[in-house]
Amino acid sequence: MSPLVTILIVVAVAAVLFAAWMFVQKQRTQKLRSKFGPEYDKAVGLHSNRSRAEAALEQRAKRVAQFHIRPLKNDERTRYADSWRVEQGLFVDDPRGAVSHADALVQEVMKVRGYPVGDFEQNAADLSVDHPAVVANYRASHAIAIRDQQGEGSTEDLRQAMVSYRALFEDLLGQTVTVTEHEEVKR
Fold it and tell me: Which of 40, 55, 66, 179 could cross-link to 167 by cystine, CB 3.0-4.6 Å?
C-alpha cells in the first residue's frame, strides 16, 4: 500500500471518528436540554462553557438518582394540599408570614418525598432534575423572600412569591397546574 493511500485511510478514519464524536455530543446536549429545560441555559451561563455545564447537570442527575424519591401517599397529598389552602388564606392578613410558611411547607414536602433539605442552592439544583419546569419559580420565590427580609419587598412581590411557590408545591404534590405570571393567589 502506498503512503498516500495510508494517509487517506487515516484521514478518513479520523473524520468518521470525529463525526461520531460530534453526533454523540449533539445527542448529549439535546438529551440534557430536553431534561433540564431552562435550567440547561442557566447552567451554561453559570459555567461559561457548555461541556462543563453539561458535566455539572449530569452530576446533579447522578446525585438525585441516589436519593429515594417517592410520591406522596394520597392522605399525605390531601393533608399538604389542605395546609397550602390555609396558608394561602392567611396571605390576606399576613403576606410575609404566608410566604415564610409557604417556603417551610415546600421544604417539608421535599423532605417527605426524599430530597435532602439544606442549602437553598443545593435544594434548587436537586429539584431541577425532576422538576425543571418549576425550579425557576422556586428561585424567584426565594429571591423575593430575601428582598422582603431586607425591607425591599412589596405586597405584590409577596403575592408573586406565593404564586411561584404554589406552582412548585403543586408539582411536588403531583398536582401540576400551569400558573401564569398574572394569576391571582386564591383567597
Answer: 179
Q: What SS3 state is found at 72?
A: coil
Q: One-letter amino acid identity for 106?
A: V
For residues 77 and 109, give the distance between their C-alpha atoms in angstroms, rounded to a whole number.
9
Model confidence pLDDT, tens digit, residues 151-181: 887 889 999 999 999 999 999 998 543 333 3
Say how many CA atoms lie within 13 Å of 26 toward its Cβ: 6
CA distance 121 to 115: 13
Q: Which of 148, 178, 144 is nearest to 160 (CA)?
A: 144
Q: What's at 29, amino acid-wise?
A: T
- The answer to whether the Cα torsion of 170, 171, 176, 182 is positive or negative is positive
Residues in Cβ contact with 183 at an 8 Å cutoff, skipping those fewer than 6 apart:
163
pLDDT digits (tens, 9 = 90+) for 93-103: 999 889 989 99
